[in-house]
Amino acid sequence: MSSKPAPSHIDWLILLPIAALLLFSVAFVYSASSSFADVKFGSSEQLFWNHAVRVLIGLGLMIGLSKVDYHIWDRFSTTIVLIAIGFLVLVLLMGTEIKGASRWVHLGPINFQPSELAKFAIVLHVSAILAANKVFVRDWRKSLLPVLGWTLPICGLIALQPNLSTASVVFLIVMTILFLADTDSKHLGMVIGVGAAVGIAYAFTAEYRVRRLLAFFGGDNADEAVTYQLNQALIAFGNGGITGVGPGQSRQRDWFLPESYGDFIFSIVGEEYGFLGVVLLIGAFTLIMWRGFAVARKAPDPFGRLLAGGITTTLAIYAFVNAGVTCGILPTTGLPMPFISYGGSSVFFSAIAVGVLLNISSQAGVYRAGRKLSSTSTTD
After folding, report:
1. Where would a tag sit more exposed on the chain, N or C end, judged by fewer CB atoms within 10 A?
2. Could you read off the pLDDT of 252-282 as tens digits, one per residue?
């Protein structure tokens, strides 16, 4: 009788850098938010404690879900994506509007962004669809069409919030999963081309998006009101130099840089910890990305391979787009830095996704060991 070891392997090359990012983010958020919190809440530690509690819950979710067999999510993928779509509809009907956009749902004491749930829900469901149809993956009617049937409504609902940047990134993530599934390149290229054209056309339907694009491409002629936040972020990087001004010593956080604890927290890291701190932060995400794709390659089945690849792609795109925006390499968007930016929705759902990734890694190790054991096993 063959035996298979229990999935007890812990992928430290994923767990340690993510745990470090979460724990260090508490210090980053405290430094970036203390002045704002003191004025708004009367306590410089208000956002610090909010974020610290969320980090602890996120760590608990990540470790707990790393013990749950990832195959269970295959069975519930349709339900989860339908729930995500329901919340996206709800946020359009009765969501809280902040700065002209309705992206938050308030359910009693719980506030969250449905788009954070939706981006991982679609990764899960697309992986399940393509794994179930792996024999027909190059038949667009049995693979590409069902995937688009779920992806386009989610991207459309997110874009209507309006949140074109998140909708575009979700679309890009799904295209990456289709590429990993070996979808026909001609069909994939056509979909990407049409999607890009629709996204560009939609971008020009709102004045603020046009101003952002003109600010990015316009150089010295850009609208100063639009480029103010980016300019302040670049000043923060300049202040930091090689080694930084020191923890808690940022000058830009004090009313110069809006959203310094949110989407632009990367620049505060650059100011306080310098170029070396930025390199370490980007290095951590690079390690996670490398290890995540290694897990995808070694996953024991197509569902695990695509799900691991999709989760890793999501974290990598968000991290590097946020860094690119903060450095002025990409147009301004509202995407958070995973595990670093203040915000419960991003922390919770990213931690859940990593827990699933850790379980896939565990079973990839079990699969290899089990295969070796089965080849040398004896019958009782």
Report:
1. C
2. 887 788 778 888 999 999 999 999 999 999 9
Identity of the amino acid at 362: S
Backbone dihedral angles phi then psi of residue 194, each to the nearest 5 degrees: -65, -45
Per-residue model confidence (pLDDT) at position 170: 95
Run of H or E residues at 112: strand 110-112
- In the numeric block, which tokens belong to residue 64? 């707990």
Alpha carbon of residue 169 to chain centroid: 9
Q: Amino acid identity, residue 270?
A: G
pLDDT above 50: residue 368: no
DSSP per-residue letters across 347-361: HHHHHHHHHHHHHHH
Locate 120 and state its tokens: 């991982």
Q: How many CB atoms lie within 10 A of CB 238?
A: 12
pTM to 2 decimal places: 0.90
What is the distance between the alpha carbons of residues 129 and 137, in angstroms, rounded to a whole number?
10
Q: Where are the alpha helices (DSSP H) in the chain?
A: 12-41, 46-65, 71-75, 77-94, 114-132, 144-159, 164-180, 185-203, 207-218, 224-240, 265-298, 302-326, 344-376
